[in-house]
Design brief:
The protein is mainly beta. It has two domains: 49 residues, SH3 type barrels (Roll), CATH 2.30.30; 197 residues, Alpha-Beta Complex (Fumarylacetoacetate hydrolase, domain 2), CATH 3.90.850.10. The strands form three sheets. Strands 1, 2, 3, 4, 5, 6, 7, 8, 11, 12, 14 and 17 form a twelve-stranded mixed β-sheet that branches. A five-stranded mixed β-sheet has the order 9-20-19-15-16, with no helix packed on it. The longest helix has 11 residues. The radius of gyration is 17 Å and the shape is globular. The model has no long low-confidence stretch (mean pLDDT 97). It binds magnesium ion. Magnesium ion (MG) binds next to loops.
């Protein structure tokens, strides 16, 4: 099932997207928290503005260096345990929304195409074998990173957490094998990243288990599962598109702050 959050000019609503990614059937309520029913109203993806499919009420947990080829390209070792960081929900934007580069703070902004996991049930201290039960679904994330701030600050709060630095979308896919998707990122149409989730150092079940040992996970929490090799800098005026075959495409233009 594909669940989109969108607006036709009024308040955001949710809908089920068909297999072709073209038609939307509106539902009542928020599928993350409520039982949903079809309203009978249908529209098309082209006629609405898609929004980030989830705005986490609690937290986004990022995972660093979870693909060996990406850790190597950055000159880093693969950590023995998943390396976690937090991103504020104010960083989230939707498909098509501009990523605003604050040019007074950074001159080295990079894209990172990633599979994102959305938690559906409150949980704590769960084992990897139980992880599937707490997953609501999956979407695509761009873990936008200011490399100069990442290196200079000594921690990653600003580098990855600034406003608009966490595009999510285009919708949530509830049924896929998270270790069997390709992740392809294009910069202005040129393929930069061509990875596969089977190459994660720590798989999704292990990441959820690890995170739940430190944090209570709540419905709507998002886990960014790390990026494969091929990251690169993006300038204002360029566009980044991330394809995950089983989900769709997340596309965002990058612009300079005023
Ligand atoms: Mg990342």
């Amino acid at each position: 099932m594909r669940i989109a959050r969108y607006t036709e000019g009024d308040d955001p609503v949710y809908g089920l997207v068909d297999a072709d990614g073209k038609k939307i059937a509106e539902v009542t309520g928020d599928p993350l928290y409520q039982r949903i029913e079809l309203t009978g109203r249908t529209t098309t993806v082209d006629e609405v503005r898609l929004l980030a499919p989830v705005i986490p009420r609690s937290k986004i947990i990022g995972i660093g260096r979870n693909y060996a080829d990406h850790a190597a390209e950055m000159g880093n070792e693969v950590p023995a345990e998943p390396m976690m960081f937090l991103v504020p929900n104010t960083a989230v934007v939707g498909p098509g929304d501009p990523v605003v580069i604050p040019t007074e703070l950074t001159s080295k902004v990079s894209f990172e195409g990633e599979l994102a996991v959305i938690i559906g049930r409150m949980c704590k201290d769960i084992e990897p074998e139980e992880a599937k039960k707490v997953i609501f679904g999956y979407t695509i994330a761009n873990d936008v990173t200011a490399r100069d701030l990442q290196r200079g600050d000594g921690q990653w709060a600003r580098a990855k957490g600034m406003d608009t630095f966490c595009p999510l979308g285009p919708w949530i896919e509830t049924d896929l094998d998270p270790q069997d998707v390709s992740i392809v990122t294009r910069l202005d149409g040129e393929v930069a990243q061509d990875g596969h989730s089977s190459d994660m150092v720590h798989g999704v079940a292990a990441l959820i288990s690890h995170a739940s040992k430190s944090f209570t996970l709540l419905p709507g929490d998002v886990i960014l599962t790390g990026t494969p090799a091929g990251v690169g800098l993006v300038d204002p005026g360029q566009r980044v598109e991330i394809d995950i075959d089983a989900i769709g495409t997340l596309s965002n233009p990058f612009v300079a702050s005023e």
